[in-house]
Structures are given as structure tokens and as C-alpha cells.
Design brief:
Length: 140
């Protein structure tokens, strides 16, 4: 496994996670009152999911997997391969769906939902995802 790539992707995830965490520390009204907060959180979630997916792809390729049908499948396969727990996999799949909503603007993007999901389980799930991937990569 390319340890340098692994470290870089983990740093990318943690950087965007810190930015998102700073945004969701504010109350909902403050968050919604400034469009910069909204766009910052949207972008941070996109970056977290993209870097997490890239990390998952790297691990799965090392395990001989080659074909994937999108972000959600990467997290599903990580669960199947025992890299991450089912709970974290489901939470990461939920974040991938949220990323898809933001990117593709399905219907209307509900920024309160984005805030609530990030503030709820979303960001905490990413922290646990990092822990589980690091544990897997270290061989424990």
C-alpha cells in the first residue's frame, strides 16, 4: 500500500473535516445568515467524501478490486472487505448521497439538512472512518 498517498488523503480529509467542524459549531441561524457559511460547508462535505472515496479506492485496488459503480459502492465494498464497520459504512454512504445531492442539485438543496447531517452523525462518522482505515492500514 502506498503509505504516502494514504497519509496525503488522510490529511486532506482531516483538513476539510476541520473546516466543516468550524462551520457547524455555529447555531443554525448564524449558519444560514451568511452564504459563505453555506458554500463553505457544501464544499467541505464534497471534499471529505471525495478524499474518503479516493482513499477507499486505493485500498480496494490493493485488495484486487477494479470495478466500481460510484461513491456509494466504494463504501459498501469497504464494509464487505472488512476494512470498515457496517455502521461507519452506512454513515459514509449517507454522506456520499449528500455529496451527490450537493453536486447534482437534485431538486432543491436544503442547506438546513446539510447542516443537520453534518452536525449530527456526519462529521463524527468521518472521524471514525479515519480511525478504522488507520487501524486497517496498520494491520491491527
Amino acid at each position: 500500500m502506498d503509505r504516502e498517498l494514504l497519509k496525503k488523503l488522510l490529511r486532506d480529509i482531516e483538513y476539510s473535516l476541520d473546516i466543516a467542524g468550524g462551520i457547524v459549531e455555529m447555531d443554525l441561524n448564524s449558519f444560514l445568515s451568511d452564504i459563505r457559511n453555506i458554500y463553505t460547508l457544501r464544499l467541505a462535505i464534497i471534499e471529505v467524501v471525495e478524499a474518503s472515496t479516493s482513499l477507499g479506492l486505493h485500498i480496494l485496488r490493493e485488495l484486487g478490486e477494479r470495478h466500481f459503480d460510484g461513491y456509494i459502492e466504494v463504501f459498501r465494498r469497504l464494509v464487505e472487505k472488512g476494512v470498515i464497520s457496517r455502521e461507519i459504512g452506512q454513515n459514509m454512504m449517507r454522506l456520499a448521497r449528500l455529496r451527490n445531492l450537493i453536486i447534482h442539485r437534485y431538486w432543491v438543496v436544503d442547506d438546513t439538512r446539510i447542516y443537520d447531517e453534518a452536525r449530527g452523525n456526519g462529521l463524527e462518522a468521518v472521524k471514525k472512518f479515519i480511525e478504522e482505515v488507520e487501524r486497517y492500514a496498520s494491520g491491527d
